[in-house]
Structures are given as structure tokens and as C-alpha cells.
């Protein structure tokens, strides 16, 4: 046991307290060019998601389970983007892109919480679409307000628990250097690779969490759409089938982009290590998807457009 004490003393002296984020580029002119682009993307993300939440709250005709879940999806996207984008924007204007150990852990915790919650919420929304199409006469009874609230609480609770487990398992490891993260945010796969201690348990926890939350949610979505497809095939009229499919089109597009990009990120990392491709995929996953989700749900949605017209009409006819 005698050699163990010097090791602990050495650890305390060399413990990493800061990480260095390499960002998207090391060229100052490129960083200054990217700053306004990502600032606009972030502002659009905030405005569009917040606008969608307010619209759903203001218009009584949108007080249905589908739009109830959509408002929480918009909130998740706002928080998810805000966990990394503001830091990236500020780093574009800095010479040294350093982040403290605690701040890095906090950033990862929030981002992971929102990512876990989005997986669960997309599964919940898929189940909602199945009930709406497969059991339309029982829809109001099954998808009661109390059940919807419990489902949302479950998605946030599951995300919180999963994120806590991952964050603690990763950041309790011993870090003695190097401390350079080849990305614009605190990505757990890069952080674990910097550990000076054995990361096997943390890697297993990360893998099990991905299976438990990510894959199980994806399985629920697949099963829901299998039942939805079976229900649509039973509809005799072409018009009825098209209408039923249109109610799922936006959600299906969001799921495809979210999981398609997510699988691309992690399959790419497991097969090769190209930092530039990592960064491009990360930008799409962390920055662009939170902006695309509300656009997908809004631009081709007649109910959203009609609700917006009603709200504008009420606002313009208010007595002065």
C-alpha cells in the first residue's frame, strides 16, 4: 500500500481543471465568417421554437395531445441548442477556447438530458399517432390530459436519470492530461478518451444507456409505425389513407433526421476517426436539427397556419 500514497499525491497535483475546445476551425478569418451564420441559426432556433410554444398555448384549437407534445419538443430543442451553441459563438471571438471541468460537465449534463428526453418524447409522439389512427374512436379516452402529462414527466425524468448516470460515470474518472477536445462542445466520447484511468466501466454505462434509452425508444417508434401502416392499409378510401398518413408525415421526417444523424455520428466514430467529419455531423446534430424540427412541423401544417391567422386576427382587432 506504500506506493499508493505518492500516486494519490501526484494525482492531486496533476488533476485537469480545464479543457481546451479546438472548435470548428483554428483559422481566425474562418471563425469570424462562421460567427454570423451560426448566430442567425441560433436566433431562428429560439424564435421559431418559442413562437411555436406560444402559438400552441394561445390557440385553443391546438390544445390536443399532438400539439401538447410538440410544445415540449420545441422546449427540448431550445434547451439542447442552448447547451452548446452560445459557447461555440463566444469561442469564435476568443483566442483561447478553454472550458472549466465543472462547466464542461454541466454542458454535457444538459445536452445529454435533452437528447435522452427527445428520444423518449419522439417515441411518445409515435404512440400518440398510433392511437389517433389505429383507435380513433377511443383516442380522447386513451390520450387523456392526465396521461399526456404523465408521459411528458416520464420523458423528462428518464432523460434526467440517464444524463446523471452518464455524467457522473464520465467525470468521476481521473484526468491528468492531455486536455484537448477536438470539437466545439464537451462530447463524452472524446472526454472519456482523455482519461488517465481505466474507462471500461464508463464506456459500458454509456453503451447500456444508449441501448436502454436510444434503441428502446427507436423500437417503440418502429412498432408504432408498423401498427400505423397496418391501420392505414385497412382504410378503404385513398383520400382517407392520404389524410391518415399526412398526420404522421412531420413526425416521421423529424424521427428520420434525428435518428439518421444520430446513427451516422456514432457509427462513423466506431468505424473511423476523421475529426472534420465528426465536426460536420456534430454541427448538424447539435445546431441544425433543433432549428429544423419546428420548421418541419410548421411549414406544411395547415392547422398551425390557421392558428397563426386566428391569433394575428385577434391581435389586430383588439380594442385600442
UniProtKB/TrEMBL annotation:
Bilayer topology term: Multi-pass membrane protein
Alphabetical keyword list: Cell membrane, G-protein coupled receptor, Membrane, Olfaction, Receptor, Sensory transduction, Transducer, Transmembrane, Transmembrane helix
Asked whether the keyword Cell membrane is assigned, the reply is yes
InterPro entries, A to Z: GPCR_Rhodpsn, GPCR_Rhodpsn_7TM, Olfact_rcpt
Cell compartment(s), UniProt: Cell membrane; Membrane
Supply the Gene3D superfamilies for this chain. Answer: Rhodopsin 7-helix transmembrane proteins (1.20.1070.10)
- Domain (G-protein coupled receptors family 1 profile) ranges: 48-297
Q: Report the transmembrane regions from the record.
A: 32-56, 153-175, 211-233, 245-268, 280-299
Going by the entry's taxonomy, the superkingdom of the source organism is recorded as Eukaryota
Protein function: Putative odorant or sperm cell receptor.
Similarity annotation: Belongs to the G-protein coupled receptor 1 family.
PANTHER family (UniProt xref): OLFACTORY RECEPTOR
According to UniProt, the name of this protein is: Olfactory receptor
Q: Which organism is it from?
A: Equus przewalskii (Przewalski's horse)
Amino acid at each position: 500500500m506504500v506506493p499508493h500514497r505518492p500516486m494519490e499525491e501526484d494525482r492531486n497535483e496533476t488533476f485537469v481543471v480545464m479543457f481546451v475546445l479546438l472548435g470548428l476551425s483554428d483559422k481566425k478569418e474562418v471563425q469570424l465568417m462562421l460567427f454570423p451564420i451560426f448566430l442567425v441559426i441560433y436566433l431562428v432556433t429560439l424564435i421559431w421554437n418559442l413562437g411555436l410554444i406560444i402559438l400552441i398555448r394561445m390557440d385553443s384549437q391546438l390544445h390536443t395531445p399532438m400539439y401538447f407534445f410538440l410544445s415540449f419538443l420545441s422546449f427540448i430543442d431550445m434547451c439542447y441548442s442552448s447547451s452548446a451553441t452560445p459557447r461555440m459563438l463566444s469561442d469564435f471571438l476568443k483566442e483561447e477556447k478553454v472550458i472549466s471541468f465543472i462547466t464542461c460537465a454541466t454542458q454535457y449534463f444538459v445536452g445529454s438530458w435533452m437528447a435522452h428526453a427527445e428520444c423518449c418524447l419522439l417515441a411518445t409522439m409515435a404512440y400518440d399517432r398510433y392511437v389517433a389512427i389505429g383507435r380513433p374512436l377511443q383516442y380522447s379516452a386513451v390520450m387523456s390530459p392526465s396521461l399526456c402529462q404523465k408521459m411528458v414527466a416520464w420523458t423528462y425524468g428518464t432523460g434526467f436519470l440517464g444524463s446523471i448516470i452518464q455524467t457522473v460515470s464520465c467525470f468521476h474518472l481521473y484526468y491528468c492530461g492531455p486536455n484537448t477536445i477536438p470539437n466545439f462542445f464537451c462530447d463524452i466520447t472524446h472526454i472519456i478518451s482523455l482519461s488517465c484511468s481505466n474507462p471500461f466501466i464508463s464506456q459500458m454505462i454509456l453503451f447500456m444507456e444508449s441501448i436502454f434509452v436510444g434503441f428502446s425508444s427507436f423500437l417503440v417508434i418502429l412498432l408504432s409505425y408498423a401498427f400505423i401502416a397496418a391501420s392505414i392499409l385497412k382504410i378503404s378510401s385513398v383520400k382517407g389513407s392520404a389524410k391518415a398518413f399526412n398526420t404522421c408525415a412531420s413526425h416521421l421526417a423529424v424521427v428520420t433526421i434525428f435518428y439518421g444523424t444520430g446513427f451516422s455520428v456514432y457509427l462513423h466514430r466506431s468505424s473511423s476517426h476523421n475529426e472534420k467529419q465528426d465536426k460536420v455531423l456534430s454541427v448538424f446534430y447539435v445546431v441544425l436539427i433543433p432549428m429544423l424540427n419546428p420548421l418541419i412541423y410548421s411549414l406544411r401544417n395547415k392547422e398551425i397556419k390557421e392558428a397563426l391567422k386566428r391569433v394575428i386576427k385577434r391581435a389586430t382587432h383588439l380594442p385600442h
